[in-house]
Amino acid sequence: MSDLTKQKTNYWEFFLKREWSYTTGAVLLAVLAAVLVVVTGVAWGVTGPFANWGGLALEAIGIDADSWVIFNGSLAKYSLWKDQTGMLDLGIVLGALVSCLLAASFKFKKIKGWRQVAAACSGGILMGIGARLSLGCNIGAFFSGLTAFSLHGWVFGIFIFIGAAVGSRLLKKWFM
Amino acid sequence: MSDISNAKPIQRAQRGGRGLTPEQRARRKFVQITTGIVVLCVVFLIAFAAQTANPNGAFIVLMGTAFGYVLQRSRFCFTASLRDPVLTGGTDLTKAVIIALALASVMFMAIDISRFGMGLENLDLSKTAGFVRPVGFHTAFGGFIFGIGAVIAGGCASGTLMRMGEGFAQQWVAFAFFVVGSILGGFVLRFFQAVPLLYGKTSVFIPSAVGGWIPAIILQFGALLALFVLADWWGKRKAGLR
């Protein structure tokens, strides 16, 4: 243990601890997105399976969500292993956790006050509705849409920007 | 188990401020790195399990983990890239997002052209790289409320998942309500789809709309370049004013 933690040649600092620049992140994300498309044929998305997961949770507590028009029997057929987007989501959470732990910077951050709860609830619901309406989130509709030369990606991008400007004002007024 | 009980006083000392002895710091580092390696092993186990049900399963799990790792390491946040120009005037992240968009556009374009050629007559929109989806009022309205929600909740879709992994309790709550909103959104979308004014049914693939790849390339990269220059100018102006 002491060998691992007290060594002077700091490869750990160099490879795992040091933060990367935004540009490094940008280049790597673009490369990963292209590799994903080439191998699986389906681009990166995030929010697609969220409604299904909610439906499955409702089923688990005895509510027959599968008969609702928005699911229409699709919940019975849902399998996480066959859902590329769902598995990517799981990977994102685990990848971020691994990244924090290997850098020894993981820290559980508790919720500070009811304002944060209110912000998380209202923000989460707005994002959920917004993502379904625009047929994708900041990844599926913006990052994988704009880059696919699709007009909806550009329109979505312009309007999240306007929404973010309005949201910043609300955040300052109510939640800070 | 002993690791967890030993880690407690360390966390408490850290919350208290600077009271972290070098030994505590070394211990914390050891515990975290060990846990990190264990979690990485769990990722590989999940990848194995996924492979049994899906021919691309292991690859997809590892790709997701790579996305999460890159997002966390570079503190990449789409919400902040759109929020900071307004909130703080910072545009470093905005410029990085534009770089990512331009690079991914180049690669997606290359994939499309290698599959369908420079002409658009053989094009199959369901097989192009990335997503080409219907555009209309629903896109604009959805984007608008998504933008508000992302800023308030402190993270967009990818940012929320990333912060869940980083240990933010707030984002676990946001995620739960993101799921609730997705179900509500399913119903709202059905309502929108029933009203022609609210829902545009046509997908617009820019190269088809403007008459070929060349004008589309000029438009796409011209717009991204203009946005980059604008973001750079805005960031410098705001920094000068401060």
How is the main sheet of chain B built?
A: none
What is the terminal-to-terminal distance of chain A?
Answer: 43 Å
User: Termini distance of chain B?
Assistant: 50 Å
The averaged pLDDT of chain A comes out at 92
Low-confidence segments of chain A: none
Strand content of chain A: under 5%
- Helix percentage of chain A: 55-70%
**Whole-number average pLDDT of chain B?**
90
Q: Report the principal-axis shape of chain B.
A: globular
User: Structural class, judged by helices and strands of chain A?
Assistant: mainly alpha
Outline the low-pLDDT stretches of chain B: 1-17
What can you tell me about this protein's structure?
The complex is a heterodimer of chains A (176) and B (242). By secondary structure, chain A is mostly helical. Helix content of chain A is 68%, strand content 0%. Chain A has 9 helices and no strands. The radius of gyration of chain A is 20 Å and the shape is globular. The mean pLDDT of chain A is 92. By secondary structure, chain B is mainly alpha-helical. Chain B is globular, with a radius of gyration of 23 Å. The N terminus of chain B is likely disordered. Chains A and B meet through helix 1, helix 3, helix 4, helix 6 and helix 7 of A and helix 2, helix 3, helix 4, helix 5 and helix 6 of B.
